[in-house]
Amino acid sequence: MGGVVDGGMARRFWIKFRNESVFAIYSPFVICLASGVLDSDSFLYFVSQDVHFLKAFAQAYELAEEYADDDEDKIAIRELRKGVLKKLKVHDTLVREWGFELPKESTLDNAAVNYTDFLLATASGKVEGEKFPGKIATPFEKTKLAAYTLGAIAPCMRLYAFISKEIQALLDPDDSDHIYKKYIDSLSSQKFEAAALQIEDLLDKLSISLTGEELEVIEKLYHQAMKLEVDFFSAQPNVQQTIAPFSRAHDPREHNLTIFSDFDMTFTAIDSSALLAEIAIMTAPKADLNGCETHLARMSSVDLRTTWSILSSQYTEEYEQCIESILPSETAEGFNYEGLCKALEQLSHFEKAANSRVIQSGVLKGLNLEDIKRAGEHLILQEGCRGFFQEIVKDEHWKTDVHVLSYCWCGDLIRSAFLSDLNVLNVHSNELDYKESITTGEIIKKVESPMEKLQAFNDVLKGCSNDGKHLTIYIGGSVGDLLCLLKADVGIVIGSSSSLRRLGDQFGISFVPLFSGLVKKQRELKEGGGSSNWKGLSGILYTVSSWAEIHAFILGS
Ligand SMILES: *[C@@H]1O[C@H](CO)[C@@H](O)[C@H](O)[C@H]1NC(C)=O
Ligand SMILES: *[C@@H]1O[C@H](CO)[C@@H](O)[C@H](O)[C@H]1NC(C)=O
């Protein structure tokens, strides 16, 4: 995003609430705008709301200027207000320059009103949890209100700047067919960025003398403003048929949907094998005190730590070597699924050998099922992941099946992570072997390799219609997921596995950022007469950097 002073409060808030902005980016309105196929009535409805926003800004600045104590601040706010008034004056001309003519009458948008009402309430001191009975008394309290007001404006400007830059990055500079190019250029201009920055700098400056509690109020106002702005984008009426949200673009009466996801590092923030090793080490006896051997005798925690460390570095090293050895020296001309399958068969041998080594080492011996379950229940999942699945399994219309496919050694660990609220998720993984709730050190092998993951994927879909009516989405991030990612109608890559990217590149897979993929598909949707055409084995995988993107794409806001 650039620009905003490092460590400044405005920047901190923007980063903190960045995931919300994703819902604006993936809104039908923005996708259609970006792809250039938005119908001009929808566009004009949208830009005609600018007038209401600008009027509210002007009013809010007027109040803020009065509140500000410092002359320099007063001047800065006055300049901002002047800028807004000037924009109001030339708004019609601007729209004409972008190539459109505003209608004489404009309807006031409900979501726009929600934001402007909130802004003006804030600017007149009606802030939740704050008391300004009657007239605001001290100059100090007034300064605080100026900061609150700026806090409710800053995210709005930043969001527009951010969205337009995301769109502009996808535009061909020479594309004269894109009818919204001039509009997007103006929003992503240096001038617009400078204005957004100016507001953020001023917000930072006005907040310097505030207490922790008051800063929390600003954070809440910033967040609320951001949400209302995102709502404004999401709730744009009458936007034509869109590719997203996926669940709205398809009719549950005509389609079934199955979602598959990997577990380690896709759901979780840490690797489950490391977690199991940690449980083993934490619960092991400190040392072999009496040397008494039973059939479940355990290694001491010191020995376990050493053994685990050797095993895991050997795995990492040999994994890299294995990937090197299966990478073809020449990049494929096109998507080469067969070649990839052959290469991954060699990786399968390696994965199986690695698991056998773990069994033989005895590190998985003597773990208590209760300890494993407790660790599972406390497992920290990736931000936004739980919320997404909670919503998708709740959805009455879609009745989506969700399957978790994992190399994890212990299905109980996964199931206990889902116990509280996601127990409807189907788990396909290996299992640890127990004797009276204590692990024997054996793994009951089910899903050890890319081939076996694909097998599990195919097994789930056995008997499902093959007529394009059964849609599949696979979300994963490791080489083990590649075949399933490719086989699914929509393969979404999360995380940043470099081996996955390298293998993919060599076998002719295209990695496309999801938003840009959707913008392209939206264009094709128009050209292709309205059918969205998600199909497996296309050789295209979509990349995302957060679960918020997946949520926004599939369910919308
Ligand atoms: C405006 O706010 C009201 C009250 O919070 C809410 O019910 C409504 O859905 C909002 N309208 C839009 C279009 O977001
Ligand atoms: C969806 O799945 C249900 C249950 O398996 C089946 O009865 C129905 O025919 C499927 N619908 C479509 C459109 O394939």
Automatic annotation (TrEMBL):
<dbReference type="InterPro" id="IPR050967">
    <property type="entry name" value="Thiamine_Salvage_TenA"/>
</dbReference>
<feature type="domain" description="Thiaminase-2/PQQC">
    <location>
        <begin position="147"/>
        <end position="235"/>
    </location>
</feature>
<dbReference type="Pfam" id="PF03070">
    <property type="entry name" value="TENA_THI-4"/>
</dbReference>
<dbReference type="InterPro" id="IPR036412">
    <property type="entry name" value="HAD-like_sf"/>
</dbReference>
<keyword id="KW-0472">Membrane</keyword>
<dbReference type="InterPro" id="IPR004305">
    <property type="entry name" value="Thiaminase-2/PQQC"/>
</dbReference>
<keyword id="KW-1133">Transmembrane helix</keyword>
<feature type="domain" description="Thiaminase-2/PQQC">
    <location>
        <begin position="28"/>
        <end position="125"/>
    </location>
</feature>
<dbReference type="GO" id="GO:0005829">
    <property type="term" value="C:cytosol"/>
</dbReference>
<dbReference type="InterPro" id="IPR016084">
    <property type="entry name" value="Haem_Oase-like_multi-hlx"/>
</dbReference>
<protein>
    <recommendedName>
        <fullName>Thiaminase-2/PQQC domain-containing protein</fullName>
    </recommendedName>
</protein>
<keyword id="KW-0812">Transmembrane</keyword>
<feature type="transmembrane region" description="Helical">
    <location>
        <begin position="21"/>
        <end position="38"/>
    </location>
</feature>
<dbReference type="InterPro" id="IPR023214">
    <property type="entry name" value="HAD_sf"/>
</dbReference>
<dbReference type="GO" id="GO:0006772">
    <property type="term" value="P:thiamine metabolic process"/>
</dbReference>
